[in-house]
Model the fold of this input.
Amino acid sequence: MIAMVPTVKCVVWDLDDTIWDGVVLEQDAPVPTADALRALDVLDRRGILHAVASRGEFEPAAAHLRMHGIEELFCAIDVGWGPKSEAVRRIAETLNLGLDTIAFVDNDPVERAEVSEALPPVRCYPAEQIASFPDLPELTPPAVTAEARQRRALYRAERIRQESEQEFHGSNTEFLASLDLVMTVRRADEDDLERAHELTVRSHQLNTTGRTFGIDELRRLCASDDHEVLVASLADRFGGYGTIGLAVSEIRGENSVLQLLLMSCRVMSRGVGTALIRHVVERARARGRRPLAEFVPTDVNRVMLVTLRFAGFDVVDSDSERMLLRCNDVRSAAAPNADHVTVLSGDVTP
Done:
C-alpha cells in the first residue's frame, strides 16, 4: 500500500533570484517575477501559507517586500546568514507545522541540498519550477474551505497575540481576561464538514474519546434527529482563531450523551474547554434532557477527563475501555466559571 503524502501547508521562499531576479543588498532594485506573484496569490487563496528563509539583512529584505506590497502574504520572515535548514526548522516550529507539510523553493542547488540533507521530510523545488506551482497536486488541497481562505489572517493574528502575551505584565489570568474572548457555538452545516473532519483527525490530546469521523459520517449525523453536531469558533481582540471545537451528542431517550468533544490544541492555553462543555450542558438541560458524556482514555487525552470532572461530571459507569459520566447538578453549579469567555449561540433558535 502506497502511503499518502500530506498536502503542503506552507511554502518557504528564498528571496534573491527566486521571488525576484536580482539581489537586494547589491542595489539591483529587483522586481518580483510574474510567476512568483501568481503562485503566491493562487496558493494563498487555497489556504497554503507562505514564509521566507533567505540570506541577507532582515530590514532591507522586509522593506523590499513591503515596497512591492507583498510583505503581508508571509506569516514568518527569517532572513540572516545561518543555514537555511535552521531557518526552515524555526519557521515550522513557529507555525506549529510538521516538516512533511513544508516546501522549500530556492534558486541555488547547494541551498536546496543543504535543506534536503538536514530536513529530509521537506520537499525542495528549484526556482525554475515556480510557474508550475499552481498545477502541482501537492500544492492543491482536496478542498478549500472558507476557513482555509482566511488561514493567513489567523496565523498573523496568532503571531501578534503571542508577542502581546510575551510583553504583558501581569498574571496569566489577567492576560486571558484582557483578550475579550468570544466563543460562538452553532449547529454544523455542510460548509463546516471539512474542518470538522480535520479537527477529529488532527486533535488527539484534546479529544474525549479519540474518535474520528469521515465527512460522510458527519453529514449523516448532522441530518439525524438523534444527534446534534456543534462547532465552536473563537475570537478575541486580535482577531479570529477560526473553528476550534467540535461536540457530537447522541439523544438516548431522556439523556443527551456527549460522544465526542474536542478542542484544537491551538487554544489549549486559553481555558475555553470548560466554556464549551457548559454550553453543551445548558443546551441539553434546556431541552429537558440529562447531560451525560462518554470518555475513552488514550495515551494523551487525560486532560479532557480532568476538564469534564472540573465541569461537574461524575463517573457513573466504567470498564477497561470506556467511562460514562453524568453531570452532577450540585457540582456543576459549584464548578469554576470560565468568566473570561463570552459564549454566544450562533443558531437561529436556541
